[in-house]
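User: Let's play a game. I give you a shape written as tokens, and you guess the letters that built it. Ready? Here's round one.
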């Protein structure tokens, strides 16, 4: 998409979300433009969904417009520029508008208080999501370097590639600390400074709980805990240190207190927790691989639907730190394969519904590359049963990959973020690249096949095929799910966060 097209997309979206005066903040993740709005009632959902570049919308704490990977990163700066250029227009605030705003604030507050655990998981996810591009880039470079090393090619270049791929992972604790402090309302650089203690080589001279510490001990979990502690120490100092010496004492006390607690406590505790995660994951796959894969692959789509899948990022990062790869991600990726198989079956069953078939055709390429939200919110979830049969396909693919883990053939990923076919360059394990690609590819084929068959034979009930399989404009408008429209029942709102 050219720069002018990106600007045109942003210009088309802005008036449909209430104009610049209604936008209070703009951000984006891997696939979505996330907006904080003053008045939700000003948004024209139907018109937004009708825009060619909009794959769907999701209402959560922020209003999320699904644009797809790559595209959202290019449209967001154009949208921000338009909001800044036009500025907040002056307008009269009516009593009705104030009432609506009050009701909206009440609703948001009620939702926030009702799901504290869910919001905590999202906050943790927001710490790690900004790190995903670097994890992907370094993971791909590591994969290329491993291939060149195995083939004996470019021996003078591979050490440089190894350094390039490993540098970020060596300092990931610092970035986690920085983002954690930022997310929890502290000074980001202080969070990074405290977390840097964990990777400092000199901690090898320190003993805690009767044992010598190792640089990096505790990893990302230790960095997260250290930065959260730093935020609370900083807040305590801000309320008690006199203003005249605040600039000197507050950062000093924050780094000193948090750093010492990290060295003499958090590093050891977080190290034990991290080791426990690695041991548990290995035991699970070694002893119950097929069953574990069945459960993980089958439940991952609901986690995506609820926006809780990002909470697994710290676990993946911990496994990558310990073992060089996460064996959980290829299993979880099978959920996307089940979703693709499901969508193909829907496409085949509803031959006359040009609306749904057009949605599937536009969303399938992203689905093959592991971006599942367009198919989830545009096809399977609004239809109901196909979402369940997609999960069945994911469970079958997960069981396939898990079964080989039980046989000792582990397949993992050197980075997090990509899925589907995009995961092939990041595959790693203990049996060689050929075996790993064969097992992972076999799992995808099983997921596609079972997702297709389960949806074809069990995905439609009663009069559902007759009602949906029509090419009339009226029926298509009534039946077309429309990306993310009524993506879930009111009792369990769809709040995926990518």
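Assistant: Ready! My guess for every position:
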């Amino acid at each position: 998409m050219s720069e002018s097209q990106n600007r045109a997309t942003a210009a088309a979206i802005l008036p449909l979300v209430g104009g610049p005066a209604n936008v209070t903040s703009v951000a984006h993740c891997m696939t979505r433009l996330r907006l904080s709005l003053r008045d939700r009632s000003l948004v024209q959902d139907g018109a937004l969904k009708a825009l060619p570049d909009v794959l769907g919308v999701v209402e959560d704490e922020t209003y999320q417009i699904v644009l797809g990977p790559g595209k959202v990163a290019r449209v967001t700066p154009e949208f921000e520029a338009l909001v800044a250029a036009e500025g907040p227009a002056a307008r009269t605030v009516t009593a009705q508008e104030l009432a609506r705003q009050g009701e909206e604030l009440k609703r948001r507050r009620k939702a926030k208080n009702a799901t504290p655990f869910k919001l905590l998981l999202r906050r943790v996810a927001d710490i790690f999501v900004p790190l995903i591009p670097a994890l992907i880039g370094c993971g791909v470079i590591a994969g290329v370097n491993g291939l060149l090393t195995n083939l004996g090619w470019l021996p003078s270049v591979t050490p440089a590639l190894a350094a390039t791929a490993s540098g970020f992972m060596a300092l990931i604790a610092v970035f986690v600390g920085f983002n954690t402090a930022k997310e929890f309302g502290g000074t980001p650089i202080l969070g990074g400074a405290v977390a840097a203690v964990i990777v400092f080589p000199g901690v090898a001279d320190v003993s805690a709980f009767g044992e010598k510490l190792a640089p990096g001990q505790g990893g990302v979990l230790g960095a997260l805990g250290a930065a959260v502690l730093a935020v609370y120490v900083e807040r305590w100092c801000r309320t008690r240190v006199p203003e005249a010496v605040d600039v000197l004492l507050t950062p000093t006390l924050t780094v000193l207190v948090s750093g010492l607690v990290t060295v003499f406590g958090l590093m050891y505790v977080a190290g034990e927790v991290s080791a426990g995660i690695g041991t548990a994951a290995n035991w699970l796959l070694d002893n119950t691989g097929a069953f574990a894969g069945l459960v993980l692959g089958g439940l991952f789509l609901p986690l995506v639907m609820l926006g809780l899948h990002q909470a697994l990022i710290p676990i993946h990062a911990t496994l990558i730190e310990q073992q060089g790869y996460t064996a959980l991600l290829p299993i979880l990726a099978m959920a996307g394969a089940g979703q693709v198989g499901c969508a193909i079956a829907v496409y085949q069953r509803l031959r006359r519904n040009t609306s749904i078939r057009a949605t599937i055709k536009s969303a399938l390429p992203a689905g093959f590359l592991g971006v599942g939200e367009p198919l989830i919110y545009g096809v399977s979830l609004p239809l109901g049963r196909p979402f369940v049969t997609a999960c069945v396909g994911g469970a079958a693919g997960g069981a396939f990959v898990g079964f080989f883990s039980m046989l000792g053939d582990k397949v993992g990923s050197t980075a997090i973020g990509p899925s589907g076919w995009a995961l092939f360059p990041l595959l790693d394990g203990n049996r060689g690249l050929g075996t790993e690609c064969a097992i992972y590819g076999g799992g995808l084929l099983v997921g596609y096949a079972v997702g297709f068959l389960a949806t074809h034979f069990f995905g439609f009930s009663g009069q559902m095929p007759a009602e949906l399989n029509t090419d009339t404009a009226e029926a298509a408008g009534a039946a077309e799910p429309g990306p993310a429209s009524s993506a879930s029942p009111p009792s369990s709102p769809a709040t995926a966060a990518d």
